[in-house]
Structures are given as structure tokens and as C-alpha cells.
Design the sequence.
């Protein structure tokens, strides 16, 4: 699959089959995160994959009871190990780094025939407690991972002209 096919075909999946994810597919998804670029190549991250059903149930509650999260057989938390401050541009490097890695995972999951949904609505403290994440680390994003139960239609996007300009704003 080429990159643009994955970019165009990926959806936020909010309904999952109970079917298990093959270990090699899960490994490919996590490997895509490991290979992501990062500021200063710090690789200041940890990706936690959870398959224990009871833990996933508790994590689903921590995702403000977005029940579809608990339908998937795998839950992934993408964490920054610590806040390494801002880049020269004033943007926090750890958030950017982990977001890129998360995007890698989501696209690789699509290539593997798996669905994901970037979840930003979760309780930081609860997820950290459930997964024994150290105080100084931060959970940047989480996602369920599993086989989609149905096709998801594409969400609309602004037009190319609206979001792109050339030479100046
Ligand atoms: C940073 C971020 C946070 C998001 N948080 C949630 C969330 O908590 N729950 C949810 O159902 N979807 C969440 N989404 C998914 C968006 O709603 C979704 O990407 C958007 O509606 C476009 O749909 P698509 O991903 O299918 O193209 C999030 C997406 C991003 C990028």
C-alpha cells in the first residue's frame, strides 16, 4: 500500500469486532512508532500495548466511557517520558514527537487492515495510574486497535484552497 492510499483510506473507527489482533500485526504497528522521527532524535517515548480485558475495561472508563474503546482487543497508550522543553520555535518537542509516532501507528494499522481512533478525551491521571506510568511522563494520546466492525464513511475536509496558500498566508 502506498502512503497516499493509507492517508485517504484511514478512518477513526468507533466500532470493533471481538476478533483478536495477530501478534505480528501488533508488532508492525508498534514498530512504526519506534521508527518515527523525533526532535534531536531523543526518542523520548514509550508505547504501551494492553490486551488484558479487565485493564482495557478500566482504561475505557478513563476514556470518559467512550464505550467503543472497550470493544477493541488492544489498547495503545503513546507516552512521552518527560517534558524536554520547547523547540526553537516555541512548541513543546515531546508532544510533537509522540504525535508523529502516533500517526505512524495509525497509518500502519490501516495497512494491516486494523482500525484505530485517536483518543484525546481521556483522564490523564487515571490512565497513568492504571498503567503504572511514572509521574514525570505524560500520556499524549491513546487508541483502541482492532478489526473494524463496519465501514466508516469519510468525514468532510476543508477544500485544498481553504487550507493551502502559496508564498504568504
Ligand atoms: C488529537 C485528536 C483527538 C481526538 N480525540 C477523539 C476522542 O477523544 N474521541 C473520538 O471519538 N474521536 C477523537 N478523535 C477523532 C476525530 O474526531 C476524527 O479524527 C475527526 O472527526 C476526523 O475523522 P476521521 O479521523 O475519520 O477522518 C480525535 C482526533 C484527534 C486528531
Sequence:
Amino acid at each position: 500500500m502506498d502512503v497516499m492510499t493509507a492517508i485517504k483510506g484511514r478512518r477513526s473507527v468507533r466500532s470493533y469486532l471481538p476478533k483478536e489482533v495477530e501478534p505480528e500485526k501488533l508488532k508492525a504497528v508498534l514498530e512504526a512508532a519506534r521508527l518515527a522521527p523525533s526532535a534531536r532524535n531523543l526518542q523520548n517515548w514509550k508505547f504501551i500495548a494492553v490486551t488484558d480485558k479487565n485493564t482495557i475495561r478500566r482504561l475505557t472508563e478513563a476514556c470518559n466511557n467512550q464505550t467503543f474503546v472497550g470493544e477493541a482487543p488492544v489498547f495503545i497508550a503513546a507516552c512521552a517520558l518527560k517534558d524536554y522543553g520547547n523547540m526553537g520555535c516555541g512548541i513543546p518537542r515531546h508532544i510533537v514527537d509522540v504525535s508523529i509516532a502516533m500517526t505512524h501507528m495509525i497509518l500502519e494499522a490501516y495497512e494491516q487492515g486494523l482500525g484505530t481512533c485517536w483518543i484525546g478525551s481521556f483522564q490523564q491521571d487515571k490512565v497513568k495510574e492504571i498503567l503504572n506510568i511514572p509521574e514525570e511522563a505524560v500520556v499524549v494520546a491513546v487508541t483502541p486497535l482492532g478489526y473494524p466492525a463496519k465501514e466508516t464513511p469519510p468525514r468532510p475536509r476543508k477544500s485544498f484552497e481553504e487550507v493551502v496558500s502559496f508564498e504568504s498566508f
User: Anything to note?
Assistant: The longest strand covers residues 138-146. Residues 3-163 form a domain with the NADH Oxidase fold (CATH 3.40.109.10). Residues 11-12, 14, 66, 117-121, 155 surround flavin mononucleotide (CB under 6 Å). The chain has one domain: 3-163.
